């Protein structure tokens, strides 16, 4: 089915290094051994598969990951059926979009993140996930998550959403997105996503 098409990712991935933890299946049907990968392992995974991307790609049902070219094209968004926009580069030089720009037809959420390894994007993981989750639970809604290029800041927030709301370990979240779009979060963001992975596993009793 359609959901299966989008969420089909491998359950286990062998890592040379990392912290071994027990991870339960989201539905509780089985228990498997998963590993929290090192940042180096994650970077190696990101360097596999797709090596380019479009302005926008649908990386999860009704969830589009894209760049500022798409975000600034209001007519294009209307044709795509976009009802929600999460801008991970709000207020920066090239991403000036806001609620006034989109009007009443689109629900907007702006996050003033910078694509720098020392920027704390983790402070927005849960609020962004909540906005995406509410959007995708609105009948007929489609959401665009974007930054300048659509591969680092916005990609990190989409990965966090999949980890928080769909209980995907970081590796599975990356593989799910990479089936449809090349992404490249900076090393600092990868470290923060790895910490989120550990935090979520501990919270869920893994």
UniProtKB/TrEMBL annotation:
Please provide the record's keywords in A-Z order: Cytoplasm, Hydrolase, Protein phosphatase
Q: Which reaction does it catalyse?
A: O-phospho-L-seryl-[protein] + H2O = L-seryl-[protein] + phosphate; O-phospho-L-threonyl-[protein] + H2O = L-threonyl-[protein] + phosphate; O-phospho-L-tyrosyl-[protein] + H2O = L-tyrosyl-[protein] + phosphate
Q: Which GO terms describe its biological process?
A: negative regulation of MAPK cascade
Domain (Tyrosine-protein phosphatase) ranges: 54-202
EC annotation from Swiss-Prot or TrEMBL: 3.1.3.16, 3.1.3.48
One Pfam family assigned to this protein is: DSPc
Domain called Tyrosine specific protein phosphatases: residue spans: 123-181
Coiled-coil regions listed in the entry: none
Task: Output one GO MF annotation.
Answer: protein tyrosine phosphatase activity
- Does the keyword section mention Transmembrane? no
**Do you know which SMART domains this protein is assigned to?**
DSPc
Q: What does this protein do?
A: Dual specificity phosphatase able to dephosphorylate phosphotyrosine, phosphoserine and phosphothreonine residues, with a preference for phosphotyrosine as a substrate.
Protein name stated in the entry: Dual specificity protein phosphatase
**What species is given as this protein's source?**
Gopherus evgoodei (Goodes thornscrub tortoise)
């Amino acid at each position: 089915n359609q959901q299966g098409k989008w969420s089909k990712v491998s359950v286990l991935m062998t890592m040379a290094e990392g912290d071994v933890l027990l991870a339960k299946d989201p539905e509780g049907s089985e228990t498997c051994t998963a590993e929290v990968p090192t940042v180096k392992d994650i970077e190696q995974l990101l360097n596999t598969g797709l090596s380019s991307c479009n302005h926008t790609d649908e990386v999860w049902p009704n969830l589009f990951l894209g760049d500022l070219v798409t975000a600034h094209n209001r007519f294009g968004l209307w044709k795509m059926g976009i009802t929600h926009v999460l801008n991970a580069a709000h207020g920066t030089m090239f991403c000036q979009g806001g609620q006034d720009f989109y009007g009443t037809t689109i629900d907007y959420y702006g996050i003033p993140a910078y694509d720098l390894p020392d920027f704390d994007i983790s402070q927005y993981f849960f609020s962004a996930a909540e906005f995406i989750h509410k959007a995708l639970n609105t009948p007929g809604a489609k959401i665009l998550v974007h930054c300048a290029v659509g591969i680092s800041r916005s990609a990190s927030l989409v990965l966090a959403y999949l980890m928080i709301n769909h209980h995907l370990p970081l590796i599975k979240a990356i593989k799910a997105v990479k089936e449809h779009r090349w992404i490249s979060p900076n090393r600092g963001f990868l470290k923060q996503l790895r910490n989120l992975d550990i935090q979520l596993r501990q919270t869920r009793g893994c």
